[in-house]
Design brief:
heterotrimer; A alpha/beta (295); B alpha/beta (562); C alpha/beta (385); B: 5-stranded parallel beta sheet; 4-stranded parallel beta sheet; 29% helix; C: 385 residues; 7-stranded mixed beta sheet; 16 strands; 19% strand; globular
């Protein structure tokens, strides 16, 4: 098997991502998919640092650093300006972390999605405020340690996809850099759709997950294959397409492998793991009840 | 850092200034590890290598053949008869099923024959003369590899035809003679002197030692071991021995030799084959094809049979009867004719040195099997009587630690004559090694020190990138045809099948440009240059993602010394 | 050129339309709503070819303007009070990003308790953000200042806030001369920024600034502000050439030989004008200084206009809690180390939309006349005991 990804690089090395950063790879692949006719709106997130301090930048496209909660709204403004200036073929890419999407930026994102403003919103979700040093966000999963959930987080992860689907936007999809072909396909698909497109990308943060950097891709792959983070697409908020996995694995091996490789889950008891497994199954069934077809 | 006057925080420079390579504690390094198939191949074939060539687009069969035959000049032969330890070691067997390596080898070999592919050999160095005693696989392999090394040799063959067991012992349904003879001719056509019908005795051997700079003894093992049971020598034909039609205990090699030379073989309707090795299977299946009933009698169980599993499987497929846990006790004759074999029932005791469980006779368990021909196939011994006594040991040739060199300077030995009856590919490997050692003996070149390398284990692989795929099975001829003729059983892969099967190869430990390291690098630090990957250590942060995501363990992390 | 009787809010809408704002984004809030309603209508009819993004909050409204502006479009928004406060973070973002956005703020008192009526605490809370602030007296001035605002903003790359009183201006109709758009075009050329999001010159805007550079970047905003005084004056002069109207940074009204000068802003100014006229008729040596531009603070003009009088009464419709009236503080500070300085008296009145009538002004004049020496005590006019 060989990946079929565009060769063009639109990201410079020397960026400030930690070794093994899934978010850095996500940007690299996304810009390969979208090409250089893209403008990035970047709220506060790891990428605010990754892209380099003044007077540097790591991307080969224009990029606007903006306030934490404004990815959705600033993107609307950029889009409007491009339209009014007649640059309709320039794509706007809002690139936000889970904090900027699930939490502080949710209102602006919801506003833009309700207006169906024409841009691609990628949330690279590493499941906590990693830039500030691992504080819980509403994307942090049940059972994870963070510096503000000193034992474990006792609330489940917010289901952002259902929120976005409820806006009936033309396209929403989950994705993972562990599946570069799928990730790029989704961005390209999004590129050709008008309106608000939302890509929820699951990425590993080795320092935040307390795992070794080489595990970065492996862990997000396990998350997909184990059903913790299934890959699927939602068209117009109603049509669900399942990409991966085809079914929940018959045993709990992968889930355990996933949890055990990460220090953030080291406070889990056997009872907790049972609960996590039950939750994965429940969420899976809930998702399956909506699936129209499998890709 | 340059500061350009801008009205606000506008970045005009790129992050290329930031040489993140300085963050690195470990550096990724491309490595070529030893694939398990290459590791176990007695002939040293670069199996992963030729399969990889077939996986390129378009597949270059000529290149694959050249790579394959650089190590083994008998691909069409080995593709048919080799016991393919490579497939047993194939990491794919831990995933689904091993690669059909021997089928692929056969396709490449047959391609070479059909296209009459030739080697480009160096000019021979006429200063050196080398004698090879025995024109079997070991001898031919030695001659071939010597030729590649720039030497011309002379083969002394006792029989009227080269090939040893390849020509004399393997039935045609496994190995058509035109195939093996063509591969032999391809070797001799490259400037190898051949003396047929030239058995060696003590005096000739002494002369060879004088006339030649090196002698390689590869005489094989041709003396059939006897059953040593009552009645084995008894049924003498009534005419005193001239009418062999009535002979009813036939050594396996003699039986196979006669078959191979299209001589008439006279066997009864019920033929008992004693033994569980490959020769026993060859005999049994040949008997079947002669329209008689073969019965394989073996003293342990099927699990302990030394024959390769495929052979056993096919014999059973052909509905050949196996009587196991039975040891011949005596031959029952009536009117000088065999009527039955009396056997003792055995049971399995504790494991012996070879790891197989020892058969122990069960008291008072004798029983009879009605037979009229008995073909013992319990192994062969070496006749090395022309050699100095110092070079003989336990009916074999005595060699030093490397398995080839003897205590007599300039004399080398290999193949079954040293190891006892083994396999074609092991003999080929021995010939190859002998050629290298003779080369060293003659010219004292720098011998490459073979690194002791651990082959890639299944656990070393990242199988996430491999789709499950069943092994491609070549077509076989139907049973009715097998019952009535010596037509080759396996038809071999079609070109499409060969490529399909090749694509299943994991390419263990060897980069096959799958792009994973390039694709997954978050730091753009894997560069493609001249069809290879290179790390950009100026920026590589040493995260190790590429190491883990390499499906085949062709990258390692090395601690950074600063 | 046509005169129409329109409200202050509609004067804002006309101003934005005539300035050919390209992207408008706003969120409704009393007393600003009519501004966005009329702009929506202008966009619907095609009278204004702009994208109007009807957002879910003021925060997003300014965010949209920021996005539009950095992409090279002329951006406009309008808000009031709580809405402005909600924008606060982005008020900084726009200025630090040197984005020439123009915003109308209808002055409204901050809650709680809820109030929809005017005072200046909302806009003055934003005084140190790097926005220029103009306080308007009439609907005509509102319209003209919006147009001037874009010109100034784009010349010095800083955002401009045009402030008008709730209801007293926003909902009060006056005859307003609506200039011909072609004339406006001549005054205000299309927006062509030097730096913007551009595929051909892909820059990043707003990266992390290490201490090594930040001081210099912030200093450039101060430089631009300082330059802004002259630019605002120049633009006002040009405006006069094009349209025959001008306002100055401050306006001195009947200050010749004045012993007492009132310093006012917003609509209190027009009430004060009437009182001054009346008192001058009575022979009182009294004048008025209208504070139009608050940021950058026209300190030199203030000093020049006030240094010769004996007493200055600063009337503030705001409270800098713990200090006093904000305009008063600024005027006092303007005199700083100046040798020749009048006695400066601070009055606070009209908070929360309480009417400021001619009598209120007269009460202040009487009080200041009686006082001999300013004692820095703040006086509250109309405060119920």
């Amino acid at each position: 098997m060989k990946f079929n990804i565009p060769q063009e690089e639109n990201l410079y090395p020397g960026h400030l991502a930690c070794p093994g950063c899934g978010g850095a790879l996500a940007m690299r692949l996304a810009l390969k998919a979208l090409g250089r006719k893209t403008m990035i709106v970047l709220p506060a997130c790891c990428w605010s640092i990754i892209n380099g301090p003044f007077p540097y930048s790591a991307v080969r496209v224009p990029l606007f650093h903006t306030a934490f909660e404004t990815a959705g709204s600033v993107s609307s403004g950029v889009r409007a300006a491009l339209d009014v200036l007649g640059k309709k073929d320039t794509k706007v890419l809002a690139w936000a972390g889970d904090g900027g999407t699930f939490d502080i930026g949710l209102q602006a994102l919801s506003g833009a999605a309700e207006r169906n403003d024409d841009f691609i919103y990628v949330c690279y979700d590493n499941e906590a405020y990693m830039n500030t040093g691992i504080q819980r966000s509403s994307a942090t999963p049940w059972g994870a340690w963070t510096t503000t959930t000193p034992i474990i987080k006792e609330q489940p992860k917010k289901n952002i996809m259902e929120i976005m689907a409820a806006h009936r936007i033309p396209y929403a999809a989950t994705a993972s850099v562990s599946y570069p072909d799928d990730f790029i396909r989704k961005l390209k698909k999004a590129k050709d759709i008008k309106g608000t497109r939302f890509i929820h990308t699951f990425v590993c943060c080795p320092p935040g997950w307390k795992c070794s950097s080489e595990n970065s891709i492996k862990l997000t792959r396990l998350a997909v294959e184990s059903g913790i983070f299934p890959l699927y697409e939602v068209e117009n908020g109603t049509k669900y397409i399942l990409n991966r996995p085809n079914q929940l694995p018959s045993d709990d091996k992968m889930v355990r492998q996933y949890l055990q490789a990460q220090g953030r889950f080291s406070n889990l008891t056997e009872k907790d793991i049972t609960k996590i497994l039950a939750n994965i199954k429940q969420e899976w069934l809930r998702l399956m009840s909506k699936i129209d077809r499998c890709s | 850092m340059k500061f350009k006057k801008v009205p606000c925080a506008i970045s005009t420079e790129t992050t290329l200034y930031n040489k993140t390579g300085s963050w690195r504690n470990y550096r990724p390094v491309y490595q070529n590890r030893l694939p398990p198939c290459n590791n176990v191949c007695p002939s040293g074939e670069k199996i992963q290598g030729y399969i990889d060539i077939l996986n390129q687009s378009p597949a270059d069969y000529t290149k694959a053949w050249e790579l394959l035959t650089a190590d083994n000049p008998f691909p069409a032969t080995c593709g048919r008869v080799c016991f393919h330890p490579c497939e047993q070691s194939c990491n794919r067997s831990d995933y689904d099923e091993p690669i059909g390596i021997h089928h692929i080898e056969r396709v490449i070999g047959d391609f070479g024959l059909s296209k009459s592919l030739k080697w480009r050999m160096p000019k021979p160095d006429k200063r050196f003369k080398i004698a090879i005693i025995g024109g079997g696989p070991a001898g031919l392999s030695c001659a071939y590899h010597l030729r590649r090394l720039g030497y011309q040799s002379t083969i002394f063959e006792a029989d009227n035809k080269l090939g040893g067991l390849l020509s004399q012992g393997i039935p045609k349904y496994r190995l058509p003679q035109d195939i093996v003879q063509a591969e032999i001719r391809r070797i001799t056509a490259n400037g190898v002197n051949v003396r047929l019908n030239s058995p060696i005795n003590q005096s000739i051997f002494s002369k060879l030692l004088n006339d030649y700079n090196a002698v390689f003894v590869a005489i094989g093992a041709h003396n059939e071991r006897k059953l040593n049971i009552q009645g084995e020598d008894k049924p003498v034909p009534p005419d005193g021995g001239t009418n062999r039609d009535n002979q009813s205990v036939i050594p396996a090699l003699e039986f196979l030799y006669n078959l191979a030379h299209n001589k008439k073989v006279k066997i009864g309707s019920r033929v008992g084959i004693i033994g569980g090795g490959n020769a026993a299977m060859d005999v049994a299946r040949s008997v079947l094809r002669l329209g008689k009933k073969p019965i394989v009698i073996y003293r342990r169980t099927e699990n302990e049979m030394p024959a390769i599993p495929d052979e056993i499987h096919e014999a059973k497929e052909e509905k050949i009867e196996f009587i196991t846990l039975a040891a011949p006790h005596r031959i029952i004759t009536r009117n000088n004719k065999i009527v039955a074999l009396e056997c003792v029932r055995m049971k399995l005791g504790p494991a012996d040195k070879s790891g197989r469980r020892t058969p122990i006779p069960v008291r008072n368990s004798n029983f009879r099997i009605a037979l009229n021909t008995i073909i013992p196939a319990i192994g062969e011994e070496v006749d090395a009587s022309f050699l100095p006594y110092s070079l003989q040991e336990n009916n074999r040739i005595k060699v030093l630690e490397d398995g080839i060199t003897t205590s007599h300077k300039g004399v080398f030995a290999g193949g079954d004559a040293v190891t006892g009856p083994r396999t074609v590919v092991e003999a080929l490997g021995a010939g190859r090694k002998a050629a290298a050692l003779i080369h060293y003996h003659l010219k004292k070149p720098k011998l490459p020190q073979p690194a002791i390398e651990k082959p890639v284990a299944f656990e070393d692989l990242n199988t996430a990138y491999f789709e499950h795929a069943v092994r491609v099975q070549p077509e076989k001829i139907g049973l009715p045809q097998r019952f009535s003729s010596f037509a080759e059983v396996y038809k071999g892969y079609t070109a499409k099948q060969a490529l399909q099967e090749s694509s299943r190869c994991f390419s263990c430990g060897v980069c096959n440009k799958c792009d994973n390291c390039f694709v997954f690098c978050p730091d753009m630090s894997v560069k493609k240059k001249n069809g290879r990957y290179e790390y950009d250590y100026e920026y590589c942060k040493g995260c190790g993602v590429c190491v883990l995501e390499c499906p085949r363990n062709a990258i390692k992390l090395v601690e950074e010394k600063r | 050129m046509a005169k129409e009787v329109i409200s202050g809010n509609h004067a804002v809408s006309f101003g934005a339309m005539l300035a050919r704002a390209q992207v408008i984004s706003a969120y409704p809030i009393t007393p600003q709503t009519q501004i966005v309603e009329m702009l929506s209508e202008f966009c619907r009819t095609g009278r204004l070819k702009a994208k109007f993004i009807k957002v879910e909050s003021e925060h997003s409204a300014l965010a949209c303007c920021i996005g539009a502006s950095i992409t090279g479009a002329r951006a406009f928004t309008a808000t009031s009070s709580q809405g402005l406060a909600l924008m606060h973070e982005l008020i900084h973002w726009a200025a630090n990003g040197r984005l020439p956005i123009v915003m109308a703020d209808v002055n409204r008192s901050m809650g709680p308790g809820w109030s929809i009526w005017t005072d200046q605490n909302d806009s003055l809370s934003q005084r140190d953000t790097g926005w220029l602030q103009f306080y308007c007296e009439s609907n005509q001035e509102v319209l003209d200042t919006i147009i001037q605002g874009f010109r100034i903003a784009e010349l010095i790359s800083l955002p401009v806030m045009v402030v008008l009183d709730a209801f007293v201006l926003s909902h009060t109709s006056e005859a307003v001369d609506i200039p011909d758009i072609k004339k406006v075009d001549k005054f205000l050329p299309p927006y062509r920024p030097k730096y913007r999001m551009d595929l051909n010159n892909p820059l990043a805007f707003g990266a992390l600034v290490p201490p090594d550079y930040n001081f210099e970047l912030k200093y450039q905003i101060q430089e631009a502000m300082e330059k802004g005084l002259a630019v605002a004056q120049k633009v006002d002069n040009e405006f006069r050439k094009h349209f025959g109207r001008h306002y100055g940074l401050v306006e001195s009204y009947r200050c010749d030989n004045a012993e007492i000068i009132l310093a006012t802003s917003g609509t209190i100014t027009s009430t004060a004008r009437d009182v001054i006229d009346e008192l001058r008729k009575q022979g009182q040596k009294i004048g008025l200084l209208k504070m139009r531009l608050f940021r950058p603070f026209p300190a030199a003009a203030v000093v020049k206009n006030l240094e010769k009088c004996r007493k200055v009464a600063v009337i503030d419709r705001n409270i800098g809690y713990g200090v006093g009236g904000i305009f008063c503080q600024e005027i006092k500070a303007a005199f700083g180390n100046h040798n020749r300085r009048p006695q400066i008296f601070g009055y606070i009145t009209g908070i929360g939309g309480r009417d400021v009538t001619p009598d209120t002004i007269k009460e202040i004049v009487q009080d200041v006349r009686k006082a001999n020496k300013a004692d820095n005590r703040i006086k509250y006019i109309g405060l119920k005991k």
